[in-house]
């Protein structure tokens, strides 16, 4: 590993002069600065994170606060995390991943240590108890999600309400009159997780607008939950022909369950989903879906933070990405008896 003494030796100056050239705390001649910079480039020297922090009063570390609560699909959450880390590295920042469920106390602990320059908050509830503290912190922050009262926050997310509407609009356009939303596990709704609530709002609003018979069913992930909800739907809505799925691990088991109960997809039943494109494309019957842009959302959150930290211009309070629905093999026109 190249040290500051190696740079000093190559440039023919003292280590303290190299430090001054990096920090700008004391004036040095232009000729000396150029020799130091040339030595840094030739040797590939990178200042230690602690030295950078002392020089700039910044740690160059972002905190990503994503409590791994029950009911969340961890692979999707990790897609967000990878995007945040990758984008942060392009800005010469590292990421502290905070997964413990500690609420406001945990958020304060992270902020008070001065280990991080800024925070990104995920898995936001409509009335999240962490948000009053987040508004009061000295460190800038970005929220991936939209609580009921986003004032005073910088929020970015997929427009989940519009995503729920888009799925119903697609089914209504194909002539379906009885639809159901198979949603996240029950605990996600008990917590009033914002993205799940917004999907329900959009689904219900679009169904009412088109005068469709509709229902919403939270569902545990896995084959057992899929079979149970499929049986319940056909028992309670025997005329059902359209389903919206907002529960990533349930997608293929649910299609299997319906087909085991005698309904072919898409011949008898059309299925849409809100999920990552790669998941929708990998199912045995490729699923018409609204893409979950986790990579773009993670990158947007970091870019907004960089601007807040002084690398850019004004930052919008709200960034809602419009839904993008891709039609695949799982949806078709309603079969008329």
List keywords for this structure.
337 residues; alpha/beta; six-stranded parallel beta sheet; 14 helices
Quick structural gist:
41% of the residues are buried. By secondary structure, this protein is of the alpha/beta class.
Layout of strands and helices, then pairs:
Layout: H1 4-11, H2 15-23, H3 30-43, H4 49-56, E1 61-65, H5 74-90, E2 94-98, H6 103-112, E3 118-121, H7 131-136, E4 141-144, E5 155-158, H8 160-173, E6 178-183, H9 186-190, H10 194-209, E7 213-218, H11 223-236, E8 242-245, H12 251-260, E9 270-275, H13 277-282, E10 288-291, H14 294-311, E11 318-321, E12 325-326
Parallel strand pairs: 1-2, 1-3, 3-4, 4-5, 5-11, 6-7, 6-8, 8-9, 9-10
Antiparallel strand pairs: 10-12
Helix pairs in contact: 1-2, 1-3, 5-14, 8-10, 11-12
Report on the structure:
With 337 residues, the chain is α/β, with parallel strands linked by helices. The chain is 46% helix and 16% strand. The chain has 14 helices and 12 strands. It has a 6-stranded parallel sheet with strand order 2-1-3-4-5-11, sandwiched between helices. Helix 1 (4-11) packs across helix 2 (15-23), helix 1 (4-11) packs across helix 3 (30-43) and helix 5 packs parallel to helix 14 (294-311). It is elongated, with a radius of gyration of 25 Å. The termini are far apart.
């Amino acid at each position: 590993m190249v040290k500051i003494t190696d740079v000093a030796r190559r440039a023919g100056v003292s280590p303290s002069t190299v430090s001054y050239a990096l920090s700008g705390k004391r004036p040095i001649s232009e000729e000396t600065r150029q020799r130091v910079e040339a030595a840094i480039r030739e040797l590939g020297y990178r200042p230690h994170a602690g030295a950078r922090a002392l020089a700039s009063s910044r740690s160059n570390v972002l905190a990503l606060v994503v409590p791994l609560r029950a009911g969340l699909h961890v692979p999707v959450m990790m897609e967000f995390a990878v995007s945040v880390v990758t984008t942060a590295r392009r800005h010469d920042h590292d990421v502290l991943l905070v997964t413990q469920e500690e609420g406001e106390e945990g958020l304060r602990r992270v902020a008070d240590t001065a280990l991080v320059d800024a925070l990104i908050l995920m898995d936001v509830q409509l009335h999240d108890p962490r948000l009053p503290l987040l508004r009061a912190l000295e460190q800038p922050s970005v929220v991936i999600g939209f609580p009921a009262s986003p004032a005073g926050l910088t929020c970015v997310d997929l427009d989940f309400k519009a995503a729920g509407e888009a799925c119903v609009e697609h089914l209504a356009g194909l002539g379906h009159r009885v639809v159901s939303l198979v949603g996240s596990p029950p605990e996600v709704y008990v917590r009033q997780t914002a993205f799940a609530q917004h999907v329900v709002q959009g689904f219900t609003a679009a169904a009412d607008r088109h005068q469709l018979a509709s229902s919403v069913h939270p569902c545990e992930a896995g084959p057992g939950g899929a079979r149970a909800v499929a049986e319940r739907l056909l028992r309670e809505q025997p005329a059902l022909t359209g389903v919206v799925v907002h529960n990533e691990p349930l997608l293929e088991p649910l299609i299997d369950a319906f087909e085991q109960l005698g309904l072919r997809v898409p011949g008898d039943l059309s299925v849409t989903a809100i999920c990552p494109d790669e998941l929708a494309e990998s199912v045995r019957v490729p699923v018409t879906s609204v893409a979950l842009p986790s990579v773009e959302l993670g990158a947007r959150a970091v870019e907004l933070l960089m601007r807040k930290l002084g690398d850019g211009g004004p930052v919008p309070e709200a960034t809602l990405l419009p839904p993008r629905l891709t039609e695949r093999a799982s949806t078709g026109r309603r079969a008329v008896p």
